[in-house]
């Protein structure tokens, strides 16, 4: 019996068969327990001998099961140590770091270049009055030039989202007059327009304004040319075209060769091979006066550039809608 039981114990591999084994070989109805319960049936002379022998067997079996229990515990521990061990040589999971939006990165690069060539950064509000966005810039109510700026109005018709950074010219002049000025005015602008690959209802602009004595159109052209060289490299081709803005006279626009198609023509440049990146001109005498400067003594130039347009050229972005589309596949490329 004892040998059989111990042999059976060898085969026990887990806790539940261990419990089974205990019931079978040490439980109430086990052979060994039967001997104790039926000891009375045995003759007086044989009883101590048989009792002693049965005790011995029971102690052996108990010792055996205790040992087996320990063995199984040790095995289970060894297995879990093996299975759950951490491989410290595995490469870690990369945390997903945040980054600056491509438009912000680009704004900062442009502003860095502008500050190298002497412009101070100046900020002005995105929510404007009709007076600053239009009137003081020589665009009276009902003037047909208002058609150039499709505007988001608030419930108060005098409060609107600025359509360009040009109202910042007036804020800067009011602050600096009669000192000379050389500022760059960055920020978001809004237009109630049809969205397309070339234009969005919201976009950044950077306004340049220089006011002082003897500032000429040559200064404007030379500054913008130098800016283009620094942004696009010294071989970039640019061109000036005459244009019209109510707040500058004369007015012009600057185009950069379209890098997207290499000048061959594409939807972005409307097949012209050129992309307009800014409007500019000499500050209109009326605007100088509205800003607190005497136009007979002072002159100035101004420009308003589209930084997203510049990013489009530098990074071959085919559609301006990518900027505010929040598509991670686009944003991750910067
Ligand atoms: N404000 C003009 C626009 O948004 C651009 C511009 C700025 C033109 C300064 C001339 C001078 O279209």
Question: What report would you give on this structure?
Answer:
- One of its GO terms (biological process) is phenylalanyl-tRNA aminoacylation.
- It contains 11 helices and 9 strands.
- It has helices at 2-11, 15-26, 31-37, 46-83, 102-116, 130-133, 167-176, 217-232, 285-291, 307-315, 328-331; strands at residues 120-121, 127-129, 159-161, 181-190, 202-212, 238-245, 248-257, 274-283, 299-305.
- The strands form 2 sheets. The protein has a 7-stranded mixed β-sheet with strand order 1-4-5-9-8-7-6.
- The protein is α+β, with helices and mostly antiparallel strands and 334 residues long.
- 40% of the residues lie in helices and 19% in strands.
- The chain is rod-shaped, with a radius of gyration of 44 Å.
- Bound molecules: phenylalanine.
- Residues 164, 166, 207, 245, 248, 251, 279-281, 302-304 line the site of phenylalanine (PHE).
Which descriptors would you attach to this protein?
seven-stranded mixed sheet, binds phenylalanine, metal-binding, two-stranded antiparallel ribbon, 334 residues, nucleotide-binding, 11 helices, cytoplasm, alpha+beta
SSE arrangement:
Elements: H1 2-11, H2 15-26, H3 31-37, H4 46-83, H5 102-116, E1 120-121, E2 127-129, H6 130-133, E3 159-161, H7 167-176, E4 181-190, E5 202-212, H8 217-232, E6 238-245, E7 248-257, E8 274-283, H9 285-291, E9 299-305, H10 307-315, H11 328-331
Parallel strand pairs: 1-4
Antiparallel strand pairs: 2-3, 4-5, 5-9, 6-7, 7-8, 8-9
Helix pairs in contact: 1-4, 2-4, 5-10, 7-9
The structure holds phenylalanine (PHE).
Phenylalanine (PHE) is lined by residues 164, 166, 207, 245, 248, 251, 279-281, 302-304.
